[in-house]
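Here we describe the complex-level prediction in full. Unlike the single-chain runs in Section 2.1, the four entities below were treated as one system.
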Amino acid sequence: MTDPPSGPRPATSTDVARLAGVSQATVSYVMNDAPGVKISDSTRERVRQAAEQLGYSPHASARTLRKGRSDVVLMPVPDIPVGHLAGRFFRELGRLLRGHGHTLVMYGDTDGRGATAAREWAQWRPAAVLVAADRLTRAGVRQLHAAGVATVVAMGPRPSLLAPTLVFDDYAIGGCAVEHLIARGRRRLGVVVPAEPELAVFAGPRFEGAERAAAARGVAVRRIVLPSDEAGAAEVVAGWDAGERPDGIFAYNDDYAMVLMRVMQDAGLAVPGDVAVVGADDLPLGRLLRPRLTSVRVAGDRSAAQVADRLHQMIVAAEREAGVVLFESSAEIVHRESS
Amino acid sequence: MTDPPSGPRPATSTDVARLAGVSQATVSYVMNDAPGVKISDSTRERVRQAAEQLGYSPHASARTLRKGRSDVVLMPVPDIPVGHLAGRFFRELGRLLRGHGHTLVMYGDTDGRGATAAREWAQWRPAAVLVAADRLTRAGVRQLHAAGVATVVAMGPRPSLLAPTLVFDDYAIGGCAVEHLIARGRRRLGVVVPAEPELAVFAGPRFEGAERAAAARGVAVRRIVLPSDEAGAAEVVAGWDAGERPDGIFAYNDDYAMVLMRVMQDAGLAVPGDVAVVGADDLPLGRLLRPRLTSVRVAGDRSAAQVADRLHQMIVAAEREAGVVLFESSAEIVHRESS
DNA sequence: TTGTAAGCGTTATCAC
DNA sequence: GTGATAACGCTTACAA
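The structure predicted for the assembly as a whole is:
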């Protein structure tokens, strides 16, 4: 791949041993606080000093090779924009996993799935793989397990049949929004589906959830395919007849809600007078709009801390029961002025 | 760290060799398309088949150990929220680096700096490290080079003295905004500095850039420490005397600009009548506001493709000249209704 | 054209 | 308590 390193070689444990005047194994014992091995305090101290002096940093690959598995929790991420909840959640999760001796790594891969993708992830012999549920196949999971990956965790809108799952419940988001709209007396409901295809993974469940909740109350919903740019959105709105125009819209998320509100207002429609609008994700900016945007807030039923603990436990025990829910997001309405 | 893997061991190149009836070395040759080694097509095919059948995935750590360096481009990221430009830029960069055989990896680390942090990054023997300029020290860079890291790249508002740099020019952003405000006839200028301390890295340069540009035109700027929440921001605005109130404000970025606009309007101030407001980052949402927000758009002087190419070249050649600018963002005003 | 064998730096199993 | 020593899976001279 690349040329060999030039310049001074990095210090190895052998170098440390030489400097400290002990055997190489002793260095390893000291560095890892090996259990069941007694090392005198003086030796311990000398080794520590020598390591410090040489700027010794154990070679992660050598360790992984020897142990058969790294301490990495691998999160392969294609180009999907990460929502706000997820963003915060994973930052926190990463911080917490460190406390358990793991390192959360976002791995910029292609958008492949199944066994082929799994093979690439497996190269790194991670302790766990955290990946979108729809990128897993039975063969892929098998491949990962065969590669010594202790734990495969799926992420998706519902429990995966292939692995324990972090459930980000997009169905509930749609349902919550629609229930609110109905409670506010709206009956001609519209649900935005982004025109941008990369959002389909989230949009599908949000729409379905909305549809189901509406159906349960005997209300129909209409699908509104909306582009995220103002001009395109304006065209969509301009195409509405007064009669068939919705009086309540779940706009997929706050971003689309803002575009929609703007173009509807420009078209002379009052929000919420003529049309109520509900977004999702509860972006800080939404509450600054006129009218302030009603939104579905997505929260977790469990803290990132609990997920981190559980994940660690699963890695250690090599648990791999499918269908288990490690985390489930909950949806709740934040009622403001737009609905 | 964790228990050893259970179940079937992952297939090794030796397993593949056995199945294909060739030597282990041959497997390596075939898998890597080794240059200067002729392998008959039939052998090649048999090896390929065997690898496929066993679901063989080469052990990245073994490869790294042997070669002394991995193909990873490591990007250690603490909890700093990534701006929009940066987000898009790095997604693109990641995609492009794959084409060169590298893998961009976001590494969730602590927020340490200097040699200690470098030691942790060095563990992975990455081909390159991409990191915030202020986390680098001379010792840290030396440590990385000693660990065989071919290339250390800094990211910051100006060329680093320690490494080649991706310059995200926050000075220019502040300057651009203030020049615009002055051109629009504003003379009592305010510059927002977020109350949130984690933004200081960006806020400092943006403020300084604004200050310098103003000074060059004989105008003073006033520092406005603004919290990001509406109530806090409202308090700040309420504290202004009519006389000393600014007539033009650079609001740090679009987020703060939106809060500021909202609370100023609620306080009875007209935008841009009484106060002109300029944001930065040109968020899509800004143009949806009333009035539509003027913003400083941050663009690149070079495409991510060029940076990827250059970075690859640097890795291969182990170039490490400090002061070189690999990328420099440019700032340009997007004039809308708020100024 | 293919096989043999020497390491890469670490951890773990034994002797001492 | 500490020190040899044998893997771990791979790449790459060099031998055949």
